[in-house]
Amino acid sequence: MKSLFFIFFFSLVTLAQITNQCVIDQKSGKPMLVGICDREAFKDTSFAWWYNSEYENYNLDKETLAHVNIDNEFHSITIVMGTWCSDSRREVPRFYKILDSLNFPSAKVKLIMVDRKKEAAGIDISPFNIELVPTMIFYNDGLEVGRIIETPKETLEKDLEGILVKK
Fold first, then answer.
1. Number of domains in the chain
2. pLDDT of residue 167
3. Which range marks the domain in which residue 129 is found?
4. 21-58 pLDDT, tens per residue?
5. End-to-end CA distance of the chain, in Å?
């Protein structure tokens, strides 16, 4: 019985997805994240310098955000980004600041990091149809309701308002 438990436990551990996987970017020689990640990954000094700067220095459009009511029960968000991408390094920290201001739970955000080929370390992201990063995909009750792709059309807040507020 003990050997059966050991085999089961070992299988779970070896098959589990590695979170916050860091590899070396072949083009720049610098670290980059790939696969499923969480915000803890941005605490690494390789990423904290740009993440913290963009997050702290971004001024929220509180007037627009006052019209946004993101329902924590039904909404979820998938972010696909590359730590090598300047648009991702600018927009994603700003977007997280917006989510924090709206008290949106981190558990409802799926963060997927891709390499320069837009591959995510063994994760099939083809269902997301990613062409440019970052791509923020918004879901309501499991159905996609909108995207912000690469850069906002107006601002992150106004684009978010356009996706979530029915006029």
1. 1
2. 46
3. 2-164
4. 999 999 999 999 999 999 999 999 999 999 999 999 99
5. 61
